């Protein structure tokens, strides 16, 4: 088969060209580094010569690269995304096949990523159009959605903040104290701020309060250890990473000051997580533990939600983790957090699909549920879901019970402990939609609304299993 033949000969022209340009090298300089001829570099970059295993090893040694990354480890995910895109009816007349998707992903990933990004933008525009027809404007007067769009546009990854937070984490760990004690000491020695843990009645319901004049940082003693560490890391980020936070936010354009401020707050939370779970150590642990969220949490003293959320940010070039999406919902189906990194096409408005087992977790609290889900376009994902609790602990204290789901493309699920022993290809997938208003499945008995883009067909003499009938003309 053509695909097998191409896999035996590895062509990395676009990746090599991007690597060379990122390092500001000429072809002659790269050739000298690798001890090969300039003409050979030129032929490889134009995909007229395959790269040998010997040269791959040399590339790794000279430039410190992850071989799987350079050798096309990311092309599988790109192939899956392009294959799903080409299966869309919009490409119906083009005659594009899965083999074409593979050729593009393997042979010219730069162009492939551009096509995939264009398709994602088109799909988002379609969703926006549908929601606008329902009387909603996607971003106008909605600072929360504007902040989410800011994070989404950057795939929930901010390398400058990660690097700065990683440096702080290294300094905090140097003394051998626990992270909590190291943070308390840093506030005292570097900022002249005393950290105190006070009773809830003194805090008046607040979790954290900074009194600059008195030099006091007060935290509620009802917070568990993971929450105390996070709140301290968050306050430290606001004090020490102001420049990085401002630079990241100022590089974007916002329609409202509230959207900008919410985005900056989200980046401060990102920085706090990066201090608690520094990129390199966290990614190494995730791979070693096969993304066992509870085991990773025990290693770093973090909560289930903190670890799951952090897993969505592993997008450092040359050291990417699995591309995850994350969502948090309450028992009523309201979505309070979502991060996809272009992995999963969440709807901006409305609840999630009732067939997704994230909703079932409320009947089975603290139990991890797994599921293979399939969207109407044929793309498949592996999902895990579990309930989490928000709020400070203590008898009679208000508790917010929520559920979180973490998922990835089915092609990447083999790296998860939760998929161990499963035949991912043979296990049936649950057909779900993004939200009823955008889903066009005709046979869904769980549907709450007809799709906005279709004409309702009303026949009072016939009752189908699905609650709505609609036309596709």
Blueprint (SSEs and pairs):
Layout: H1 2-8, H2 13-22, H3 27-34, H4 38-45, H5 53-63, H6 67-73, H7 75-86, H8 98-107, H9 109-133, H10 143-153, H11 159-173, H12 179-191, E1 194-198, H13 200-203, E2 208-211, E3 216-220, H14 225-240, H15 242-250, H16 257-276, H17 279-288, H18 293-300, H19 304-311, E4 315-316, E5 319-320, E6 324-330, E7 335-339, E8 369-374, E9 380-390, E10 400-409, E11 430-431, E12 455-456, E13 470-471
Parallel strand pairs: 1-3, 8-11
Antiparallel strand pairs: 2-3, 4-5, 6-7, 6-10, 8-9, 9-10, 12-13
Helix pairs in contact: 3-4, 7-8, 7-9, 8-9, 10-16, 11-16, 12-14, 14-16, 15-16, 18-19
Could you describe the 3D structure shown?
It is a single chain. α7 (75-86) packs across α9 (109-133). This protein starts with a helix and ends with a strand. It is an alpha+beta fold and 473 residues long. Helices cover 45% and strands 13% of the residues. It has four domains: 2-124, Orthogonal Bundle (434 Repressor (Amino-terminal Domain)), CATH 1.10.260; 138-276, Arc Repressor Mutant, subunit A; 303-430, Beta-Lactamase (2-Layer Sandwich); 440-473, no CATH class. The chain has helices at residues 2-8, 13-22, 27-34, 38-45, 53-63, 67-73, 75-86, 98-107, 109-133, 143-153, 159-173, 179-191, 200-203, 225-240, 242-250, 257-276, 279-288, 293-300, 304-311, and strands spanning 194-198, 208-211, 216-220, 315-316, 319-320, 324-330, 335-339, 369-374, 380-390, 400-409, 430-431, 455-456, 470-471. It is built from 19 helices and 13 strands. A hairpin with a 4-residue loop joins β6 (324-330) and β7.
């Amino acid at each position: 088969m053509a695909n097998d033949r191409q896999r035996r000969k590895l062509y990395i022209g676009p990746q090599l060209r991007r690597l060379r340009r990122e390092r500001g090298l000429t072809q002659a300089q790269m050739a000298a580094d690798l001890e090969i001829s300039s003409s050979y570099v030129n032929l490889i970059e134009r995909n007229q010569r395959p790269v040998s295993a010997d040269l791959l090893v040399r590339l790794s040694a000279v430039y410190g690269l992850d071989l799987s990354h350079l050798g096309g480890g990311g092309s599988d995910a790109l192939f899956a995304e392009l294959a799903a895109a080409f299966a869309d009816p919009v490409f119906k007349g083009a005659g594009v096949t899965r083999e074409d998707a593979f050729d593009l992903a393997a042979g010219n990933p730069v162009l492939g990523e551009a096509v995939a990004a264009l398709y994602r933008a088109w799909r988002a525009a379609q969703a926006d159009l549908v929601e606008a027809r329902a009387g909603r404007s996607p971003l106008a007067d909605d600072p929360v959605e504007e902040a989410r769009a800011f994070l989404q546009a950057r795939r929930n990854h901010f390398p400058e903040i990660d690097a700065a937070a990683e440096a702080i984490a290294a300094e905090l760990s140097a003394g051998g104290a626990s992270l909590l004690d190291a943070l308390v000491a840093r506030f005292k020695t570097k900022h002249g701020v005393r950290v105190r843990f006070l009773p809830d009645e003194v805090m008046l319901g607040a979790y954290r309060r900074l009194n600059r004049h008195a030099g006091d940082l007060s935290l509620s003693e009802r917070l568990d250890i993971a929450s105390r560490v996070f709140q301290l890391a968050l306050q430290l980020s606001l004090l020490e990473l102001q420049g990085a936070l401002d630079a990241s936010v100022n590089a974007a354009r916002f329609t409202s000051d509230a959207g900008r401020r919410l985005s900056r707050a989200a980046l401060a939370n990102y920085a706090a997580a990066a201090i608690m779970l520094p990129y390199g150590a966290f990614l190494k642990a995730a791979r070693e533990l096969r993304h066992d969220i509870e085991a990773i949490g025990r290693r770093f003293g973090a909560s289930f939600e903190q670890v799951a959320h952090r897993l969505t940010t592993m997008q450092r070039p040359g050291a990417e983790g699995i591309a995850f999406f994350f969502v948090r919902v309450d028992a009523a189906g309201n979505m309070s957090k979502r991060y996809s990194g272009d992995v999963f096409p969440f709807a901006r408005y409305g609840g999630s699909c009732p067939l997704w087992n994230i909703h079932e977790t409320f009947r089975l609290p603290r139990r991890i549920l797994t599921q293979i889900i399939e969207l109407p376009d044929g793309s498949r994902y592996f999902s895990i879901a579990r309930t989490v609790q928000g709020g400070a602990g203590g008898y009679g204290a208000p508790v917010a019970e929520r559920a979180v789901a973490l998922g990835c493309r089915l092609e990447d699920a083999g790296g998860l402990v939760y998929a161990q022993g499963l035949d991912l290809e043979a296990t049936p997938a649950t057909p779900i939609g993004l939200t009823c208003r955008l889903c066009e499945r005709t046979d869904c008995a769980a549907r709450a609304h007809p799709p906005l883009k279709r004409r309702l067909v009303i026949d009072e003499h016939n009752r189908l299993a699905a609650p709505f009938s609609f036309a596709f003309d």
